[in-house]
Specification:
This protein is of the alpha/beta class and about 280 residues long. The protein has two domains: about 120 residues, Quinolinate phosphoribosyl transferase, N-terminal domain (Aldehyde Oxidoreductase, domain 3, Alpha-Beta Complex); about 150 residues, TIM Barrel (Alpha-Beta Barrel), CATH 3.20.20.70. A six-stranded parallel sheet has the order 6-11-10-9-8-7. Strands 3-5-1-12 form a four-stranded antiparallel sheet. Helix 1 crosses helix 3, helix 3 runs antiparallel to helix 5 and helix 5 packs across helix 6.
Length: about 280
């Protein structure tokens, strides 16, 4: 991950939250007050986004000592200490919400991704994310998918061709759309085409494509599509896949299933920052 990009994202988040200053902390906490804090898991899940927490405190106060005790991708249970921080109480509290927002959200993404990955154990099918991400946070959210054992699909519009129904309508036909793309971009660019029916699958197989997105197909249709494709191109199932149907869809033989809800609506993992004043920590 580009460290300059991470710095910018964290800086924007801190500016948004702090504004002209933390009125509560600055009124209550003396500048010289020091203490320790722990990032504590309150739920069961998978950790992700630790680099964001490190960056938050690096920007706020380089004198904060942050000891990370878990890695991105580690499973945690309630009571697990994820990281320990020591230094200015003011700095610890000012950065608390931003650090937790990053850590909780990305850990939530990693957690739900791992749940699906675990469901597909024994199957040769990848769990893929989509571009349905929070604006400005795509790389971090996709990193969280990887921490959960998933695989990234396109990072953006410039990472491969995806021809869908609107593109076909604009080009005049599927064949014309593929021809135009190949003539302009060449053989080094991967081309994927969306198919809603088995008839479209047959049409696509006659063209120069690398992958087929099988959209909103029932398991019986998917199995037949996989049979017709017979390994000639990479296959992806998408649309309407839920945690309850993921394994059934994956078992049809597709190479991957793409799930927008991994990133657009995860439940944040419950994590807290528990503060201890210097006197308390000395008595532990």
């Amino acid at each position: 991950m580009n460290p300059l990009w991470l710095q910018e994202i964290v800086r924007d988040a801190l500016n948004e939250d702090i504004g002209q200053g933390d009125l509560t902390t600055e009124a209550l906490i003396p500048k010289e007050a020091r203490g320790q804090a722990v990032f504590l898991a309150k739920g069961t899940g998978v950790v992700a986004g630790l680099e964001s927490v490190v960056e938050v405190y690096q920007q706020l106060d380089p004198n904060i000592r942050l000891d990370v005790e878990r890695d991105n991708g580690d499973r945690v249970e309630p009571g697990t200490v994820i990281a320990r921080a020591e230094g200015s109480i003011r700095s610890l509290l000012i950065g608390e919400r931003v650090a937790l927002n990053f850590l909780q959200r990305f850990s939530g993404i990693a957690t739900v991704t791992r749940q699906v990955v675990d469901q597909l154990e024994g199957l040769s099918c990848r769990v893929l994310d989509t571009r349905k991400t929070t604006p400005g946070l795509r790389l971090l959210e996709k990193a969280a998918v990887c921490a959960g054992g998933g695989v990234n699909h396109r990072f953006g519009l410039g990472h491969g061709v995806m021809i869908k129904d609107n593109h076909i309508a604009a080009a005049g036909s599927l064949a014309q759309a593929v021809k135009q793309v190949r003539s302009q971009l060449g053989h080094m660019v991967q081309v994927e085409v969306e198919a809603d029916t088995l008839e479209q699958v047959d049409e696509i197989l006659a063209l120069d494509v690398d992958a087929i997105l099988l959209d909103n197909m029932e398991p019986t249709q998917l199995r037949e599509a996989v049979r017709r494709i017979d390994g000639r191109v990479w296959t992806e199932a998408s649309g309407g896949i839920t945690p309850d149907t993921a394994r059934e869809i994956a078992a049809t033989g597709v190479n991957g299933i793409s799930l927008g809800w991994l990133t657009h609506s995860p439940v944040a993992l419950d994590i807290s920052l528990d503060l201890m004043m210097e006197e308390e920590s000395n008595h532990e």
